[in-house]
C-alpha cells in the first residue's frame, strides 16, 4: 500500500523511502524542528547537505525525533552530500568525518556528490567508493549530473551511482536525463519538486487541484510518485509537512499525468554555469556568504 514507509530498491539492493523531507535553505534551529515534526508524522527519510549549513541542527533533530517516537537509527534513511569546496580524494574522506560528527551518526544511508565540480568529481567518487566499501555509507550517488558527466563518471567508476538527485518539477523535467538514468539503472530523485511559485501557481496544476480536491503541491507530489521519482519536498511548517505527505488517498489518471508531462518548459533554478567553481565568470555559491558557511567549518 502506498505511504511514507513505501520504498524503492536501489541498484545495490538498498531499500530507500520514496518520499522524505528536505532541509535546504533552513538554519540549524529550524532544520532541527522540521526533522522532529517530520519524524513524528511518519517520515522516514531526511535529506541534508554540508552546503546547507545545517547538518548539526539536522543531527539534533534526528536524535531527538527518534527518541520521541521510540525508533532507532536503523529505522531512518539519511542522505547528505559532499560540499563543492571539499571535492577531491583526501579532502572528501577528511570532510566526511566532520559531517558524521555534526550529524551525530556513525554512517549515512546515502552520500551524494552535490555538484560535479569539473576536474575533481572523479577523485571525489573514488573516495566515496572507499567509504562505501568501508561501510561508512550504504549507497553512493550523484546530484545535478547531466548525461555527459554521468557517462564520464561511469567510464572511471567501479560502482554505478544509485541515485541522481536533480531539479525536477512540472516546468523543468529533463526528460533526456530521466530516460538516460533509467537505462543505466540509476534512480532519479527530485530536489525542488514543487518548482516554487511558478509551478504551484500554474493554471493547469490548479485546475487539477480543483478537480481532485487537493492542493497544487499535493497534485505535483502525486505526479512525482506516479512517475516513479523519489521526492524530498522541503517545508518548515508542521502543517505543510503533513500536507505534503497526504497524497496516498487519490490517483491521477493517466491522461492527467500526461497533461502535467506536457508542461515542461526546461526551466532551471540553478545550472553549472552559475557557479564560480565551474565558470570563472560565474557567481560564488550563495552559501559561502552565510555566517555559518561550510567554508568556515573546521573539519
From TrEMBL:
Residues 280-299 are annotated as: Disordered. It holds the Pfam family Aldo_ket_red. Keywords: NADP, Oxidoreductase. Residues 19-264 form the NADP-dependent oxidoreductase domain. InterPro entries: AKR, Aldo/ket_reductase_CS, NAD(P)_OxRdtase_dom_sf, NADP_OxRdtase_dom. Residues 283-299 have a biased composition (Basic and acidic residues). Belongs to the aldo/keto reductase family. This is Aldo/keto reductase. It comes from Nicoliella lavandulae.
Amino acid at each position: 500500500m502506498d505511504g511514507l514507509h513505501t520504498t524503492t530498491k536501489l541498484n545495490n539492493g538498498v531499500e530507500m523511502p520514496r518520499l522524505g523531507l528536505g532541509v535546504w535553505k533552513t538554519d540549524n534551529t529550524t532544520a532541527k524542528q522540521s526533522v522532529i515534526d517530520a519524524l513524528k508524522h511518519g517520515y522516514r527519510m531526511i535529506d541534508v547537505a554540508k552546503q546547507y549549513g545545517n547538518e548539526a541542527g539536522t543531527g539534533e533533530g534526528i536524535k531527538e525525533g527518534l527518541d520521541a517516537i521510540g525508533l532507532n537509527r536503523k529505522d531512518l534513511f539519511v542522505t547528505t552530500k559532499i560540499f563543492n569546496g571539499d571535492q577531491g580524494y583526501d579532502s572528501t574522506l577528511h570532510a566526511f568525518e566532520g559531517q558524521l560528527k555534526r550529524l551525530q551518526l556513525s554512517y549515512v544511508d546515502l552520500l551524494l556528490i552535490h555538484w560535479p565540480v569539473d576536474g575533481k568529481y572523479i577523485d571525489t567518487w573514488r573516495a566515496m567508493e572507499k567509504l562505501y566499501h568501508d561501510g561508512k555509507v550504504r549507497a553512493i550517488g550523484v546530484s545535478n549530473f547531466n548525461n555527459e558527466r554521468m557517462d564520464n563518471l561511469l567510464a572511471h567508476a567501479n560502482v554505478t551511482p544509485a541515485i541522481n538527485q536533480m531539479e525536477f518539477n512540472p516546468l523543468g523535467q529533463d526528460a533526456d536525463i530521466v530516460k538516460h538514468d533509467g537505462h543505466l539503472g540509476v534512480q532519479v530523485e527530485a530536489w525542488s519538486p514543487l518548482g516554487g511559485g511558478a509551478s504551484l501557481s500554474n493554471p493547469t496544476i490548479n485546475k487539477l487541484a480543483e478537480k481532485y480536491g487537493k492542493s497544487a503541491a499535493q497534485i505535483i507530489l502525486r505526479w512525482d510518485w506516479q512517475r516513479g521519482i523519489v521526492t524530498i519536498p522541503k517545508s518548515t511548517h508542521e502543517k505543510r509537512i503533513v500536507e505534503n505527505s497526504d497524497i496516498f488517498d487519490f490517483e491521477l489518471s493517466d491522461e492527467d499525468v500526461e497533461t502535467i508531462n506536457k508542461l515542461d518548459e526546461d526551466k532551471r533554478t540553478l545550472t553549472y554555469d552559475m557557479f564560480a567553481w565551474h565558470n570563472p565568470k560565474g557567481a560564488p555559491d550563495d552559501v559561502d556568504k552565510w555566517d555559518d558557511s561550510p567554508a568556515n567549518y573546521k573539519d
